[in-house]
């Protein structure tokens, strides 16, 4: 039986005690959800030598190797370091950042992978009042569930219509899953209330009758999942791609300043007021 003190110490290093109370699972960290071939080979080596020859993916895109014996933990730490592998991802810190494949995906409006890499380098593992999760997605499909993270970034592309260039081909309406576009008398009819700013119409329109009025990201704060589910609040505007990291910087600085111990961003917002939290962030950005 592993004592409580050792459990807590190892958890901070990414070694989580399993339900048999004898073995640990170690979490190896990715970069924006990506591992190199060499890293995967080295994780396999650890799994074969100290585990049971298999590994699994966590919900935050890390690789977990189970069945590490307590007496082998220090050996795994030493060999992982020698192999260039990093482990961790728990505690009252910024947790592993998650990003979809918007950088290469047909639907991506922002370079999700690069944004995630930069934010990961700056914030992963740094101390916060409570755990803090950051998620980045490239479009309204929201594959990585950005708005149930403490800070969520969602790529957006706001359409702008020029009916004089429309030839009535109907490609835009056929590709609009929200039915926000339809063709009448060979001209576009746009229902803004149905639009989710996914950008499909902009990418589809050949005669450039629909172009991007704004392209960047909507940013959400205060989301969470699990025992207490909460959808994050939008900051209410579209930020250009080069503004995303400065906005996250501002949110993190403010959270660390006003957050009490054991408060996630959502808890801080409930305490001081959602409107005040958002207005304070926007004021700092102006």
TrEMBL record:
Top-rank lineage group of the source organism: Bacteria
GO biological process, one term: sulfate assimilation
PROSITE patterns tied to this protein: 4FE4S_FER_2, NIR_SIR
Pfam families, per database record: Fer4, NIR_SIR, NIR_SIR_ferr
Domain 4Fe-4S ferredoxin-type: 157-186, 187-215
Keyword terms: 4Fe-4S, Heme, Iron, Iron-sulfur, Metal-binding, Oxidoreductase
Keyword Oxidoreductase belongs to the record: yes
InterPro entries cross-referenced by the UniProt entry: 4Fe4S_Fe-S-bd, NiRdtase/SiRdtase_haem-b_fer, Nit/Sulf_reduc_fer-like_dom_sf, NO2/SO3_Rdtase_4Fe4S_dom, NO2/SO3_Rdtase_4Fe4S_prot, NO2/SO3_Rdtase_4Fe4S_sf, NO2/SO3_Rdtase_FeS/sirohaem_BS
Gene Ontology MF annotations: 4 iron, 4 sulfur cluster binding; heme binding; metal ion binding; sulfite reductase (ferredoxin) activity; sulfite reductase activity
Protein's UniProt keywords contain Iron-sulfur: yes
One Gene Ontology term, aspect cellular component: sulfite reductase complex (NADPH)
Gene3D superfamilies for this protein: 3.30.70.20, Sulfite Reductase Hemoprotein, domain 1
Family assignment from sequence similarity: Belongs to the nitrite and sulfite reductase 4Fe-4S domain family.
Protein name according to UniProt: (4Fe-4S)-binding protein
């Amino acid at each position: 039986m592993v004592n409580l003190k050792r459990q807590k110490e190892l958890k901070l290093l990414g070694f989580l005690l399993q339900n048999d109370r004898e073995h640990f699972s170690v979490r190896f960290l990715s970069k924006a959800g990506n591992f190199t071939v060499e890293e995967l080979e080295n994780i396999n080596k650890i799994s074969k030598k100290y585990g049971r020859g298999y590994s699994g993916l966590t919900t935050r895109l890390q690789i977990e190797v189970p069945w590490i014996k307590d007496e082998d933990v220090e050996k795994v730490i030493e060999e992982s370091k020698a192999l260039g592998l990093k482990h961790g991802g728990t505690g009252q810190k910024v947790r592993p950042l998650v990003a979809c494949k918007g950088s290469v995906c047909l639907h991506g409006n922002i370079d999700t992978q690069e944004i995630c890499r930069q934010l990961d380098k700056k914030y992963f593992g740094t101390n916060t009042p409570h755990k803090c999760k950051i998620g980045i997605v490239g479009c309204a499909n929201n594959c990585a569930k950005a708005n149930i993270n403490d800070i969520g970034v969602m790529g957006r592309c706001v359409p702008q219509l020029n009916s004089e260039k429309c030839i009535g081909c109907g490609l835009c309406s056929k590709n609009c899953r929200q039915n926000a576009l339809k063709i009448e008398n060979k001209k576009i009819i746009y229902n803004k209330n149905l639009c989710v700013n996914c950008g499909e119409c902009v990418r589809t329109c050949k005669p450039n009758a629909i172009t991007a009025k704004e392209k960047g990201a909507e940013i959400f704060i205060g989301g969470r999942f699990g025992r207490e589910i909460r959808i994050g609040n939008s900051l209410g505007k579209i930020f250009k791609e080069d503004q995303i990291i400065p906005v996250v910087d501002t949110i993190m600085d403010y959270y660390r300043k006003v957050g009490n111990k054991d408060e996630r961003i959502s808890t801080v917002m409930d305490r001081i007021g959602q409107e005040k939290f958002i207005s304070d962030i926007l004021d700092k950005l102006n």
